Amino acid sequence: MAEVLEIQEDEKKLIQHAYRDLLRCIKSKMTAQDQIDLRNAYELAVEAHSQQRRKSGEPYIMHPIAVAKICAEEIGLGPTAIICALLHDVVEDTDVTLYEIREMFNDRVAKIVDGLTKLDSAYNRTSPQAENFRKVLSTLVEDVRVVLIKMADRLHNMRTLGAMPRHKQLKIAAETSYIYAPLAHRLGLYSFKIEFLDLCMKITDPENYYGIAKKLAQTKKERQAYIQEFIAPLSKKLNEELPEVSCKIYGRPKSIYSIWNKIKTKKVPFDEIYDLFAIRIVLDVPFNKEKLLCWQVYSIVTDVHTPIPERLKDWITTPKSNGYESLHTTVIGPKGRYVEVQIRTDRMNEIAERGFAAHWKYKGLNKQRDVYERWLDSVRDILEDPNSDAVEFLGDFRANNLFNEEVYVYTPKGDMQILPLGATALDFAFSIHTDLGYHCTAIKVNNKLVPMGYKLKNGDQIQVVTNKNQKPNEAWLKMVITGKAKSKIRSAMKEERRREGLIGREALERKLKNMKVDIDHAIEMLVKYYKFSSHVDLFYEIATDALTISEIFKTFRADGNQLAEIVEEEVVKPEPVQEPEVKRSRKKNDLKPRLLINGEPAERFDYTLASCCNPVQGDQIFAFLTANAGLKIHRANCPNATNLMANYGYRVMKAEWTNTTNTTFVADLKITGVDDGPGVIERLTKEISSNLKLNIRSFSISGDEGYFEGLISLLVANTDQLNVAIQTLQNLSSVSTVTRLE
Ligand code: MN
Q1: CA torsion sign, 490 to 496 to 499 to 503?
Q2: CA of 207 relative to ligand 1 center, distance in Å
Q3: Are residues 491 and 506 in the same domain?
Q4: What is the pLDDT of residues 533-580, one digit of tens each?
Q5: 522/470 same-domain check
């Protein structure tokens, strides 16, 4: 094998070429030392990876060089980060040690490479992804560059995912859309986020992805002509009125993922989506004239095209908390179509595309307190909470700190606080100070008393009233949405439970001591037997008499120094109970579709088709090992899939259909249309049963003023049959839309 692995002469040229290409992309200034370090990093990486190849067959070193190039070119990172990117897989995959890296370069480089290595090793083990995410965030607060390089690494892996086996593609895509895309959004790396989501969709939903891509290509000419028609009068007027300002105007296509989202959420076909692009006007003006000139341009835009006032968004006066600044408006363009126009400066544009990284460059120019510092503070707060459970943490964090827009409110002194949209008065109290939250008894908004769960609105002024004797309770958890408030309430309650459980603990330990059994072992066993999540819960239940000591010792007795379950003969389940169980599952299997799971015939596994997405033969699918219901087969684009794969990637197995089967599948369709007479139901059912020869499992229809909406459950053999059915129904004159429910 060695001679195959050896790097060939022509490959050496390829590698050198890639490296020179990387050097050309570096925009930041490099000292003589930087240049030496960079060269050394390159040579070390080439040497260290010389025996490795990627799945695609190319020399492994091409990967770190590509990652370094993304860091330099697309994020605009400086020499240290580029050096670290070249070395990012060296410690993980080769004999080179961290010690050697520290000796050769410096502490900083070693630290970042160490962070990257730790992140990687976390991913390779079968630990739940929630725990990994926590690691990602810990490295983020230490040195942001670790996460930025990790993003570049992930982006390159996603771009070259084609060579990977299918089930790995799905797993990586899920993790990317669950963790990296939202994080890119939060860090303002907008172009990364878009590319992540598009690449994920290409893998999880190739049919719709390529479908939209094709339609975009087909309509490109028409769209470009329209954009020209829109821009021409605008350009002319801008030149007349602001001749001294140089600006670029262009149409910017929306991503395939966002178009697909619109089709899904608005339930309209592709042809009815008009905002397939936005018009962007980017001004080259000095910092102190930015706001004034952006508004002047706005005024010119709205002179040429009529604006829709409620669509005006001013993120220049109040930037988004990920740093985004821009002025957005929607106007009515030629042919009466709505067109979004984004007005911003070069600086704002760079921040919008590169977020965090560009932000550094403009740090001195910031009007407000650094938006990222504030966000990092909140991340640190959550990370420092020793009680928070990784999965809870990830859920909260994703929901509140990554995606949402925010609401701007004020303290009684007039200081502005930014909270995620949907945050409550109680969230506000916790955001100011933990003690203020703990002891909060009443809250006034704009001088009126409100419930603690009151949802904050922009501009609210909030005053918190406290009482020393107040403390959090279970109900509070429902009144907050921020991760910080939730984790603080949870840990206060856990502490309370622990305190209350002390009596239970003493009573149990006394009893166990009398029985002369190993106390720790016995408690461990009881926690498991009663399925408590912790010792604290066991003690608490005993303390509150929910589980009494005498009850426990009806079930357990001492056996030597151990606790053993008392087994009564007649209670033992007789063996034969197993028998019908097996028979039934065998019988069920006869009706089951033919599948391969991890390459083996599915009959060997206990599996069912997931009812959340009802996969049909021909759908892209995967198998998921559930905790107690065997394997479930889901569609790759099932709404639950991302969550499952991202959190429990190690339980995902490859599944594929085998060709022949007589089995049928349930597919749910939603049909809407115009109710033009009493015959609609008959026509639909006739079309389905007589013409398409399909069985209907259930059919419900409701109508209102000439419009009807029907839900049909069909039994089909595969996706081809389903698609024919959808097409046929769509062609009926009274039907306007047919959509398969996810
Ligand atoms: Mn890598």
Answers
A1: negative
A2: 29
A3: no
A4: 888 889 988 888 888 888 888 888 888 888 888 775 544 444 444 433
A5: no
Angle at 593 between CA 589 and CA 598, to 5 degrees: 90
Structural domain harbouring 151: 3-206
Number of other CB atoms surrounding residue 167 within 10 Å: 18
- Measured CA distances, 693 to 483, 521, 690, 731 (Å): 53, 64, 5, 17
pTM for the complete prediction? Answer: 0.60
Contact 664, 715 (CB under 8 A): yes
Do 616 and 713 lie in one domain? The reply is no
Same domain flag for 190 and 327 = no
Assigned domain for 394 exists: no
Cα torsion 564, 568, 574, 577: sign:
negative
Distance from residue 222's CA to the centre of ligand 1 (Å): 41
CA of 116 to the centre of ligand 1 (A): 9
Query: Quick one: pLDDT at residue 427?
Result: 93
Domain presence at residue 463: yes
Q: Token pair of 462, please?
A: 């909030």
For residues 503 and 466, is the Cβ–Cβ distance under 8 A? Answer: no
Provide φ and ψ at 391, rounded to 5°. Answer: -70, -45
d(CA 151, ligand 1 centre) in Å: 10
Q: Are residues 173 and 37 in the same domain?
A: yes
**d(Cα 729, Cα 715) in Å, to the nearest integer?**
15
Residues with catalytic function: 92-93
Amino acid identity of 89? D
Q: How far is the CA of 162 from the centre of ligand 1 (A)?
A: 16
Query: In this structure, what token pair is assigned to residue 681?
Result: 């139901």
Domain count, the chain: 6
